[in-house]
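Why does residue order matter? Because the sequence determines the fold. Keep that principle in mind as you read this record.
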Amino acid sequence: FASSPLLTAVVAVGVAGLLGLIGLWLSVASAMEELVVVGSLILLELSRQVARRSKGSSYHSGSHQKPQRAAENVRSFLSNQLQTACGKGDLPGAEAMMARFQKLSDEAVPISCYGALAVAYAKAEDSEKMAQCLRDLHAAYPGTQADK
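Structure:
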């Protein structure tokens, strides 16, 4: 379940839709909705990483252990820095972290990073950059429901 990017995106869209429906009946602050969506994206990404680690038996083999662990540490650090910058509203810092992440990593940027950046753009009322961030998410994870 947790290893499929498509399922991750579908669950995230489902959570956002559910919160939208709840918002019709109850007055839920938009900041709380955004927090729940970003939190669910982070939890889904963590579950994907845990599933990937438990699936990969080469992770525990001797010669590949240190480079893989170092690469995962860099990805984790950049992800945390990007999400922290987004949380503080530091869009230039978040954009710099995203560019650095894309340059240094062979793998796609985690979905949670795209979600945090999109929410930061939404809070800054920059719909053009938010739309571009969602297009980038869709390009990084083809076949997802990110654009629907």
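Residues 5-56+65-140 form one domain.
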